[in-house]
Amino acid sequence: MTMPATLPDETRPVTAALVMICAMAIIGVIDNVIVTLAQDIGLWQFHLLRTLMALPLAAAMAGLGLGRLMPRRPGRVALRSVLVALAMLFYFSALAIMPIAQALAGLFTSPIFILLITALGMGQRIGPWRILAVAVGFSGILLVLQPDPGNFDWSVLIPVAGGLFYAMGAIATRSLCAGESTVALLTGMLIALGLMGAAGLVWLALFPVETLPGPDGFVTRGWVWPMQRALPWVVVQAVGSVAGVFLIIKAYQQGEPSYVSVFEYSVMVFGPLFAWVAFGQPVGPWQVAGIALIAAAGAIIAVRSK
To answer: Does 3 map to a domain?
Structure first.
């Protein structure tokens, strides 16, 4: 992936941080419904349905003057859309089979990948405080994931793969898609996810596989009918994701990626807190400590970054 050597000069770090925190509050709530809808439908059907519901909302945003619907540089927007869509496929797959705290911790290896890509691949100077923040955040991620070296479960790498693609998508948002409408970027991501959902359904129709019941069969489940129990949760996801992703894109357009990405850590508070209050999903003391370290990483960046 070829990227410009320099990024746009105009940034609004405080605004970007506040916008990102609002986005994470929305995402932290709506992502908890995945394990519920995964009881009845599959990953691919979910993404196709959500896209069909969300695209009219994106068009309405354009009609209200929140941004143009068509991209200025379709190729770059398409690349960015594919990267983020792949990240979401891995992340939602993880949400169905593990607690949201663990899925989020895997996804939020993305700031580490962003640091490596911007420092090693793009030649940008990364200060010591930002490196310290990433190290603290990574320590928190390990506490939340709690991988067992003696009995390693490869499933913990599913959200980490999402973190890699999310990092590349975040960098592409700022470096490749500067000047693009937020609505155009949102629409591109929705279309990419919808097409991937349709492709997955076609593949499973042609080459069906044995599917486990409940959330364990989320990834391998084809089209399911009827779907009355899952449909309300898909609507919640469609509306909430349009609002949340719109704010995420807006934040990355207004701030430098390795700065803005740290404020995504706030979802590590919103998501598990809502899971605990609404569904009684426990969070152990080590996971609480990990979440505190992740929040501390964001505080270091907020106070010390230039």
So the answer is: no
- The reported pLDDT for the residue numbered 301 is 66
pTM over 0.70: yes
Instruction: Report how far apart, in Å, the C-alpha atoms of 34 and of each of 76, 83, 97, 231 are.
Output: 30, 21, 10, 12
Q: Quick check: is 52 in a domain?
A: yes
**Distances from the Cα of 215 to the Cα of 34, 40, 98, 153, 182, angstroms:** 9, 8, 10, 18, 33
Q: Which of 94, 109, 96 is CA-nearest to residue 154?
A: 94
Alpha carbon 96 to chain centroid, angstroms: 15
Q: What angle do CA 75, 78, 81 make, to 5 degrees?
A: 155
Token pair 């076609």 in the structure block, residue? 202
Q: Max Cα separation, the chain?
A: 55
Query: Long-range contacts for 139-142 (Cβ within 8 Å, ≥24 apart)?
Result: 139/290, 139/293, 140/105, 140/268, 140/289, 140/290, 140/291, 140/292, 140/293, 140/294, 140/296, 140/297, 141/105, 141/106, 141/108, 141/109, 141/290, 141/294, 142/290
For residue 1, is it within any domain? no
Phi-psi region of 179 (alpha: psi -120 to 50; beta: other; left: phi over 0): left
Report the alpha-carbon distance of residue 11 to residue 109 in Å, rounded. Answer: 24
By the 8 A CB rule, do 187 and 58 touch? yes
Segment 33-76, tens digit of pLDDT = 998 999 999 999 999 999 999 999 999 999 988 889 999 999 99
61 belongs to a structural domain: yes
- Rounded distance between C-alpha atoms, residue 262 and residue 133, angstroms: 8
Total number of domains in the chain: 1
Range(s) of the domain holding residue 114: 13-304
Backbone angles phi, psi at 224, to 5 degrees: -120, 135
DSSP 170-227: HHHHHHTSTT--HHHHHHHHHHHHHHHHHHHHHHHHHS-----SGGGGTTT----S--
